[in-house]
Amino acid sequence: MPMTCDIANKIILVTGANRGIGKVLVESFLEHGAAKVYAAVRNLDSAAPLVEQYGDKVVPIFIDLADPESIATAAQTATDVDIVVNNAGVQKVASPLDEGAIACLKSEMETNVYGLIAMAQAFAPVLKANGGGAFVQLNSVVSLKSFSNVATYSASKAAAYSITQALWELLGEQGTLVLSVHPGPLATEMTHASGRADIAEPPTLAADAIIDALRSGEFHVFPHDTMAKQMGTAYQTFAKSVIEVNYG
Predict the structure, then answer these.
(1) What average pLDDT does this structure show over 201-217?
(2) Which of 157, 208, 221, 237 is the most buried (most CB within 10 A)?
(3) The pTM is what?
């Protein structure tokens, strides 16, 4: 039987909670019965609209994924958290041939990969102490297929997906469910910046998929946007036959 995690009455932390997918996640979790959401942001004032809407069910907390100390401090504060959703990330529009490609990749790796590792290291003991819970990582379809104009971002997300696979194995040993979420272009500022706003779909699709996957215990999560569905269907056999196999 797979591990599962219903969000009803749970305490959840979401990074990048002030906009885009993160903001929608906060709203969806609370509407589906979460007891409290830590809105992890780099600017605490940016979470004010969520506090105005939901009152003390939203608790702003400072996390900058490029600042490991802020992550460690947050884990010492949010000791009651049951589910951690690492949604925040940075994207540069850069191809491998652009002059600044290496600098872009360094920046993206610092937040999207090193930040993920720091989040896992800081919050794994918290989740274990609270009974296991879940760790959710937003990885994107670009973790599976590189797009040339955001190639450095794609590379950082591919690395994050690799780390997430390791976390699935390691955190599973302590009873923590791990999800790797791979949305396609959703209607966010990041998608607009990448030049794919014309095919973007509602970010609520990601929230709905995460809630369903927490309940079912699925590791790979492909929201029902057009691109994610297409890739998920093609990738499913490989994922089940290779990625989700313990070679022990």
Answers:
(1) 92
(2) 157
(3) 0.94
